[in-house]
Amino acid sequence: MREWPDVIEYMYTLEDIDVPDELMARSDIGAQILCSQIDSDHQNFIRRSVISQLDKPGKLNWRDIRVMGHINWLSDPATPARLSELTRFNSATILRVNQKLKAAGMIHLEEHQHDARSNVVVIEPAGRNFMTAFFTAYERESREIIPAHMPELTEVDIQTLTKALLVLHERAERLAGLNLSGRHKGYNTTPFAQEAAKLKYGMETYLPGLVFQLLCRRISRDYLVFFKRHAVSKLTADPKIKLRELRILMCIEYLNRPSAPHEIVSVMRYDPATVTRAITILCRDGYTDHVVSDRDEREKPVWLTDNGRLIADEYKAASSGSLWEADIITGQALSKEQMRNCLAALMILRKRSRVFSTYRKGVHPRSKRL
């Protein structure tokens, strides 16, 4: 029988949340994982319950809609570089998305008046109508879940959670802006994020879930940029280990026991095929190995080998050292209390986003209504 997350009976305050000591000990890595989970869970809801209802010219997907959403409410010129900065998509991806949106009649391109090397992306009436339909569908589907299976967020709740996310957003953004020499040459969209949360999302449309998903995606991606550049690159693993495989290895290390692939899928929010491929590579390269399950002979749990343990310890040391150096350069280290509040906010949002991810219309037990 399908198991559903517990119904959330009320909005916890940040002080109510018990943040585990092991999470505090690796707070930045934990924040990245929590943000990735929230982003992934909310994407599942949007793809399954919202986009599936819409008429999608050109077979638009969630990636295309995210880019068009930025074009829709940007007050300054929407250049490809600006869209790349805000979405964290690379320039080649933005180019492909713009071509797809243009072919679907959602946008058109104009020459940039002050930069001959660039152009300006302008949304068409059809694009604005599509985004209106998207927001309407999102709000309608959200009302199937709120307040039936979780409490409605008050304005105070939204402000509390948004404030915590923006603190973490600024930290992750500054970390991602550090190049290998320690110079800060990255993007800085935190002022934009604050303005968007305050004015554009306001919350006059009252769609805080989208704001939280947007911020969590940025935080997750920025942390990954930093860790890949300043920690993963320092590992002495032979053969070299890629970020995806390293994240799964560290997930097994964090769980602190032999773990079946489906457990890793649940934590990392990867699809099963991705986890299977990664585990195959880790086992082939000698970093993990399968062990016998004492619960189910069909399971194939994996555990770290001695080499895997060495790499996990090396990565923890490299990431901690890189964060310490970055805090000195940026002068932006968060206090223990600030980080605890950020993690508490993410734990609240993860519980809510998990309900969205697992909800099925007409399937979720109505007997659990509040």
The main sheet comes to: 2 strands, antiparallel
| Total number of strands | 4
Helix content: 55-70%
| Content of β-strand | under 5%
CATH class placement of the domain at 232-327: Mainly Alpha
Give the SSE string.
HHHHHEEHHHHHHHEEHH
How much is the average pLDDT? 85
Please give the order of strands in the largest beta sheet: 1-2
| Cα end-to-end separation | 22 Å
- CATH topology-level name of the domain at 232-327: Arc Repressor Mutant, subunit A
The CATH homologous superfamily name of the domain at 232-327 equals Winged helix-like DNA-binding domain superfamily/Winged helix DNA-binding domain
CATH level-two architecture of the domain at 232-327: Orthogonal Bundle
Radius of gyration, whole Å: 21 Å
By secondary-structure content and strand pairing, the structural class works out as mainly alpha
